[in-house]
Amino acid sequence: MNAEVYVGIVWVLLAVALFFLARRSCFDVPEGFYGLLYRHGESLHRISPGRHYFWARGHSVRLVDMRKTTLNIGAQDLVSADHVPVKLSSVLTYQIIQAETAIHQVQDYQLHLCAAAQAELRGLIALTAIDDLLDHRWNISFRLLSLVQPHADRIGIELHAVEVCEIVLPETSAATTRCGLFPVLPD
What we know:
It is a single chain. The protein has about 190 residues and is α+β, with helices and mostly antiparallel strands. It contains five helices and nine strands; from the N terminus they run αβββββββααααββ. The protein has helices at about 5-25, 100-105, 110-125, 130-135, 135-155, and strands at about 25-30, 35-40, 40-45, 50-55, 60-65, 70-80, 85-95, 155-170, 175-180. A hairpin with a 5-residue loop joins strand 6 and strand 7. Helix 3 (about 110-125) crosses helix 5. The termini are far apart.
């Protein structure tokens, strides 16, 4: 073979190599996250932190934060068992355990957790007298955790804590309490 043929073969191999390098996809998954790998919208599998290369087109990655996260449940107006209106807010601490389940089972897992916590809190306060609520807030938080945990389990999330954070009594009342602190007297 002559030199022109060898040069032609080298150019063809170089063109093929460049073609495949141009087609590859690279995804970086940071520490504390998992990536859900999709190809043309179809879920393939979960990828761990690090740099990942794929040699075909059409891949995409959705990052899922696997670290502990705090979700603030806004204040809601409730009525206790003895018909006293009260405004409560709470805080959830959760961690995604099964990324695929959390992402694929519900449209928005944070909204799902928030709605479940609000519904369970509403039912729990409706059965609790105002004195028990103020005196045993830790018990209310513990009971609320046990009520919301099954909702979280179904979507691959582990609840670490649920805390009733703020209790605001009606204006005629003498006190407001915040996050386990002593009562704050109104001005």
